[in-house]
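Interim report to the steering committee. The following record documents the input for Ig-like domain-containing protein (601 residues).
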Amino acid sequence: MGSAVRAGAAGVLGGKTAAAVAAGALVLTGAVGAGVWWARTEPQLRVVQRNAQVALEAGGQRTAVAGCAANETALGGGYAVDGAGYATTSEFVGSSAWLAAAYNPGSAPVTLTVYALCVNAPVEFAPRGGYTRRALAFRDRVDKVTAGADGRIHDLTTDGPWAGLAGSALGTDTCIPGFTMTGMEFRADRAVTGHGAAPLPLERLAPLDGSGTAPFSWVASVNPGTRLASRTYPLQSSDSAERRTRIEDPQPPQANYAVGVRAICAKLKDVSVVTAQAAVAAGGTAELTVRCPKKTFAVGGGFGFTVASAGGGARPQPYFGDGLLYASADGPPPGSSGHVVREWHLAGRNEQTAGTQFHDSVWIEHRNREELTGNGYFDSRARGADDQELRGATVPASQQITAVAVCGTVDAPPTRPGPTVTAAAPAVPPPSWDVPTVPGLPTPATAGPSGSPGPSASVGTPTAGPSAGGASRTPGATPRPGASTVTAPAPGGSASARPQPPVVAVTAPQPGGTLHRGCEETFTGTARTRPGDRPITDPQHTLWQITGPGGPVTLGTGGSGRSTVPLLADGDYTLDFAATDPDSGLVAHARTTVRIAGCLR
């Protein structure tokens, strides 16, 4: 209602009543003449963010889900980690919510925020199939040539389970005609089953079509996880030695990391792509916000690092260990849930060290100046006076990152407001990874003089009082091995009626049993509430961990299942099964000792 209308209404009805009219409320009946006065504001079409947050502990992975209102449809979503950390999964939950799982490689806790882009209008989407396209961390040179007595290099790219994977570094997907690709869902996976895998971030999730046009296809890529050979091996000739590569065996678990991608295809109007760039200094971060044109909404977005040249020449292909490049935030700008989305926000992180040399750069060592034969090897430095640098290897002072916003309008009538949907996380938890050791974390307590804790000993340790509303907590307390908890009766009541830590036990593997690193093993346990004796079956209330030299390593969740054993050295380790009472929030642990040996299967 315009100002002139409000002034007229104030003169007839009074200031307070006119204010109610302007607010769109039912204000008066029969006050002026014979009639009924109604003021009603029609709903306006808009795209808003609905967000949810969860604490992300150091070295851990968590999942959060943001849900739309009952009258809204989810167009897509995004995520933000307020520090070191990156998403490993970002996908739809039904048609009205968005899920993201993130990993925190740092030594301090951070917060994961998940955004759902919600529009109060029906939008037509193309049918979504399975995650049929994948982006792999495993890499080799695309211009590799053969070597060896038979004209081939026998390594992981030619023999064994890794054969054929080197050329699948990019995950791409497209939309059918008539639909606009606003983004891609992605979900973490293993490239080769039965082998260890550790998480890596995406270094690119962006349209292929460039700026200004409606995107038809997108591409995703993972930071490289391949490690080249660090030992020398014979070459018949030093010609093209920089292209004669060999892949180490075994591979680091990061090389076995992959993400499946799936296109988000919607029918929209006036779609355009807006981009912005910033230099991200080595060891630093950069924030970018891309604004959509007037009268359009941000319906998706992405990012990509532009490969920079080193010393004016071709930049060496990075390999695992060079430093990760990723976006810790890829979503709407931070704001309250329900805020209109007309911008896209990006936080680029560069974990490289300026001036250093790329890990596994290529050099050639000549036996003498006349001979062409010699040894090719990959290292970060020359090994002798006759060594010849084959290509530049210096890490640049910064890397360029591009932020992308997909902007458009929706050609559909708006729907009226409804209550916000409370979306629950799916029953299947995100996969567990052989996460690297996080520096700075406290070392878990060791066993007493008698050795290790007793087999399947149930140790109850309250971590908090009963939570309001029955909110659940992630198992995280670390009681002293062999400790016991005695719960005193509450005033006026008995100990049996008062909430106590659950009863927890490990049933497999057996105490002293052998687990094979890199192989999948079966883990089973039981957990029941006290009082009530109800089984705790929800995966989000259980946690399996094994304590290595650098601290606990998460295996997975749930009362039973199969998980890949971490790549730990031969020896005895403590296996921990923790369960949380979903009503009281009290946690109990069961611990047993297992032996880890090589995978012989």
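Residues 3-13 form the longest helix (11 residues). The committee is asked to note this result when reviewing the revised timeline.
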